[in-house]
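Homework help board

Subject: predicted structure for assignment chain

Our instructor gave us this sequence and asked us to write out the predicted structure in token form, then describe one feature. I got the tokens but I'm not sure how to describe them. Can anyone check?
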Amino acid sequence: MARSLSPQESKLILSLEWEKQPFLTTKEAQEILSVSDDHIRVILHRLVKKGWLAHVVPGVFELIPAERGEVAFVDSNQLALGSVLVEPYAFAYSTAAYFYGLTAQAPTMVYLQTDAGKTHTIVARGKSYRVINVPGNLFFGIDSVDAYGSKVKMTLPEKTLLDSMLRPKIVGDIPEIAAMLWQGKNQFDWQKLVDYALKFNSQSLVQRLGFLLDYLKIEIPSAERTRLLQNVDRTFCYLGRPAKWGKGGKQDSTWQVIENIPENEIQAEIKIG
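My token output:
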């Protein structure tokens, strides 16, 4: 079907292009045109058939602007697409780690974080988006970044590391987190990292972070190391999940960590030099 437009269709498309709005919800379209529920569905359906809009998920559409010509193609930016799937949101975990260069492993799934709704998976255009729900007090450390030409929200590098440390299974477990810490050692703001770590209110997270910093011989300001140590009592924790790594291992008396992951495993993902 030709990419011609009726007056109402033209008004909607021109509004989106003028505002540089790449995505549209049914409700937003209805507000722009001031028409009934039934009428807006007809208009949106026609625009999809004509190649001006493309379905993302039910009730969400992507604009295919005039500059793409008669051969209308959708944007392949998976982060731009993911940014309209949940609100509020931030790309996080492996997705953010890959964006910042903390890992060289491109995740097969796109990970988002939110403090609304439940943890769930959304499939959009054949790609899986895993939306992880976190408590409101842990939904912080987020900034707007330019992700391959689109402005999206993403957890900062320091928050990305700590989120991963809190839920290691999501990113591939402790060896991958050790690699992220090593790879980001010249990138992290250490005061911010410690500030964020303490906001998690998790002693085991602080213990594992401190242990890995010492294990990898990553030097941080002494004041920040002291702040971490002040939040460690005499309670031991395991470095890795006992269900996977067992309960044996050396005891680190500084951070009260049982090193139940073999050294060759901890270093398996670390690229030195």
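Reply (TA_rk): Your tokens look well-formed. For the description, you could write something like this. The mean pLDDT is 91. That's the kind of observation they're looking for.
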